[in-house]
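Meet today's protein:

…
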Amino acid sequence: MAQEFLTTFSDELSGVTLQPAETGGEFIISVDDVVLFDRKQFGGFAGISELKQMVRDKVSPEKSLGHSDKK
């Protein structure tokens, strides 16, 4: 997943950091300390296309994700 973000947003992201959580099952995606996705709040995992849309909407709203964009 980290590689997907780095490939898709090569001009927008300078890196991806994986940080171990204190509690099991925690999965949060944030950009500049803004939480974009929290597995517990979402009620499960989202697909990579949906996660990429969330990141895109924060870092480069005008960027097309091709077939991954919502129709």
